[in-house]
């Protein structure tokens, strides 16, 4: 006998949801779009979109138009569901929530003018984005890479942009030409001072366009707040879809899973007539830096270490890596003894308690976070998560030994994948493959090959003898550092 399939999630089937499923409490037909979001992937839909979903219950002006720069099957699948989708909060207490804050989905390829029309809507106040670190096309110096083919293409044809930098700059240019108030661009990606970097990139792009008036107008009129975002959000699986169907009574082809923990810290400079994010739990602060350093170094730094060392020790998920006593102990010591001294105090943030909470989150048995997912884009993540703390520790004369676990394991991981013919998910995958294929097993020459990657290692650090010595020793046997 064939098992009966549950009805597909949609506005018409919401009433069929099982008891206990959290549904939108507002009339979606009475909302208006106030946000254009570039890159409506899983993290955004499980994070910022949930905050706006809560806000719509009291203020209908903040529905979201998703602007997809790259193909994304799950986000697009929600279109057939009236843009509704389920967020499964998997923790000690399971919770299923239908999110309704997305009401429009537009594709950059084919609907360019529709996106620009939305950016020109005076009701749109924010242009938010989650495009990952590589989506900003920054060079090793943190500045916009004007030689990148995608950036060059946007400079040659600014009216059909491919990058978020091109979209934001041209969108602002059109608002300026129409004598409109600018929208506020808000980066929600894991970059230190992401607002400052976005601001600098847009200014560099405007200057490269040769538009001095636009450059001056953006400088004088546009705010670029920095933000910190946090919630562990593994990729959706077929198992998740089946679980949601069984638990909610509705079939969802675009679900999101995440832990219950949710945090968003925003620099308090959104201006007048901005969404009241504080009313739904967003922390509005004068200085985001301390919070983001804590998150990027403690959570993300630990994640990268668990990912590369865990994969090299045969583990597949964060939970499995945390069950590896030697590895989890080394990571905890790195966090408490090595990372914390590189951080700045933040109001209300106790580092010891924060680390304890993080370790408990990593052990969450209800959530399976694949290490291979965390291991993507290592060339971009490691400079922020590990090399920054290394430079701070060197400058202060503190030990750097345990930081080398992450870097040595990453190098071993790159080599193993190259030997197996596996293409890495990384913006410099071709270079990493070439380095990986050239490895001989000799620690000195192998490490030297990696240190020659200027996209990853700043020249000053690559030439530091203490750093090279520690890294070479760790590369020879990084597992010895786990004892």
UniProtKB/TrEMBL annotation:
Keywords of the record: Oxidoreductase
Pfam families from the UniProt entry: Mannitol_dh, Mannitol_dh_C
GO molecular function: fructuronate reductase activity
EC number(s) stated in the UniProt entry for this protein: 1.1.1.57
InterPro entries reported in the protein's UniProt record: 6-PGluconate_DH-like_C_sf, 6PGD_dom2, Mannitol_DH, Mannitol_DH/Oxidoreductase, Mannitol_DH_C, Mannitol_DH_N, NAD(P)-bd_dom_sf
Span of domain Mannitol dehydrogenase C-terminal: 287-476
Record domain Mannitol dehydrogenase N-terminal: where: 34-270
Entry-linked PANTHER family: MANNITOL DEHYDROGENASE 2-RELATED, MANNITOL DEHYDROGENASE DSF1-RELATED
Protein name per the record: Fructuronate reductase
């Amino acid at each position: 006998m064939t098992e009966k399939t549950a009805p597909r999630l949609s506005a018409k089937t919401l009433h069929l949801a099982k008891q206990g499923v959290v549904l939108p409490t507002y009339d979606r037909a009475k909302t208006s779009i106030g946000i254009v979001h570039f890159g409506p992937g899983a993290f955004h839909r499980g994070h910022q979109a949930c905050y706006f979903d809560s806000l719509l219950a009291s203020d209908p002006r903040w529905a979201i138009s998703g602007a997809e720069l790259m193909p994304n099957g799950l986000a697009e699948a929600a279109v057939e569901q009236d843009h509704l989708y389920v967020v499964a909060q998997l923790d000690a207490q399971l919770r299923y929530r239908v999110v309704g804050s997305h009401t429009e989905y537009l594709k950059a390829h084919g609907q360019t003018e529709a996106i620009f029309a939305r950016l020109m809507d005076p009701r749109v106040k924010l242009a938010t984005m989650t495009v990952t670190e590589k989506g900003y096309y920054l060079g090793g110096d943190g500045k916009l890479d004007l030689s990148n083919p995608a950036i060059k293409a946007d400079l040659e044809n600014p009216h059909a942009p491919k990058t978020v930098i091109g979209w934001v700059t041209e969108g602002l240019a059109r608002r300026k030409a129409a004598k409109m108030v600018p929208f506020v661009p808000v980066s929600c990606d894991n970059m230190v001072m992401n607002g400052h970097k976005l601001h600098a990139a847009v200014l560099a792009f405007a200057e490269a366009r040769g538009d001095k008036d636009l450059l001056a107008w953006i400088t004088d009129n546009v705010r670029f707040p920095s933000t910190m975002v946090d919630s562990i959000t593994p990729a959706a699986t077929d198992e998740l879809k089946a679980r949601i169907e069984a638990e909610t009574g509705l079939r969802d082809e675009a679900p999101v899973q995440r832990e219950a923990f949710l945090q968003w810290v925003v620099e308090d400079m959104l201006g007048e007539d901005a969404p009241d994010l504080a009313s739904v739990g967003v922390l509005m602060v004068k200085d985001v830096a301390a919070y983001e350093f804590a998150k990027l170094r403690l959570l993300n730094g630990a994640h990268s270490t668990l990912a590369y060392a865990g994969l090299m020790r045969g583990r597949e998920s964060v939970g499995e890596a945390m069950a590896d006593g030697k590895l989890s102990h080394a990571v905890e010591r790195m966090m408490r003894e090595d990372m914390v001294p590189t951080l700045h105090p933040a109001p209300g943030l106790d580092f010891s308690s924060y680390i304890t909470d993080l370790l408990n989150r990593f052990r969450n048995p209800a959530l399976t976070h694949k290490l291979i997912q965390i291991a993507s884009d290592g060339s971009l993540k490691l400079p922020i998560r590990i090399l920054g703390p290394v430079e701070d520790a060197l400058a202060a004369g503190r030990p750097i030994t345990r930081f080398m676990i992450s870097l040595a394991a990453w190098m071993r991981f790159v080599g193993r994948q190259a030997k197996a013919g596996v293409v890495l998910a990384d913006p410099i995958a071709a270079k990493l493959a070439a380095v990986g294929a050239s490895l001989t097993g000799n620690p000195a020459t192998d490490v030297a090959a990696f240190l020659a990657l200027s996209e990853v290692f700043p020249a000053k650090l690559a030439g530091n003898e203490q750093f090279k010595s520690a890294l070479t020793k760790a590369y020879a046997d990084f597992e010895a550092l786990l004892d």
